[in-house]
Amino acid sequence: MLEGYLAFKISLQPLLLKVYAKKLENLKYRQKSRVHTPRERFKEMPSAKLRASINPVIMPWLAGELENEIPDLDIHGSEKRLLEFAYQDLETCLTEKFRDRTSDNIEEILNDETRQDEVKSFLKVWTKQWLDKWRERVTFCQKMPQFSLEHLKTKKKAIKIFKKMKNGQELKELVVQKLINNGEVCMADLIAENMIIEEIACRLRMNKGKAAADKVTLEPWNILQEVLPRVKRLTERKTPLIHLKLITDV
What we know:
Layout: E1 6-7, E2 17-18, H1 41-44, H2 58-69, H3 80-97, H4 103-111, H5 116-137, E3 138-141, H6 149-164, H7 168-181, H8 188-206, H9 220-235, E4 242-247
Parallel strand pairs: 1-4, 2-4, 3-4
């Protein structure tokens, strides 16, 4: 169960910041300088994702909004990873916002010149919300927390089960939806996946590591019933959930 925080090892390269990006740690404190449920849903969840390519219109707008919120941000230099993190989360939120559309439909909306003001207004509000959550949920560390060998083995097995799980992606999308609807717009995809994996690991420990001991307990719908209530409790906690390791040997 996810009761502490999420920590990521070197193998998860997209979630590591190298020494040139260490200034990102200060973004938790730098502020703007001026005032300012049904089971059938598994079959209905859209598969639209925008991550096949970076939208050439949205990326500059998003960079501009980040710079407006943090005027001294080096968005195209040492702190460009912040833009990458934000863009990934924006894609997740847009997929949720336009959940009844395909990825092509979403691209058309974003590139529609007649809707540019609407999209920019959405980005302005979303960016401020995302930065607030970044400062609240993300923290940095030089060393990774240590876990027992048994814990690591169980989690590795849980990850393997999740990747092979029928309707596993739909399960994650439902948890992501719940997180976003509760205001968790920063790294919702990652938090959702880890909540599911930790729930599977917990059930493996209860069954003494035997995945086949009770197939019902590993059914996506059964897992969802446990994870969704935990999302609400999680969103009530204003503490870091994501621990990013800063690499200093470069």
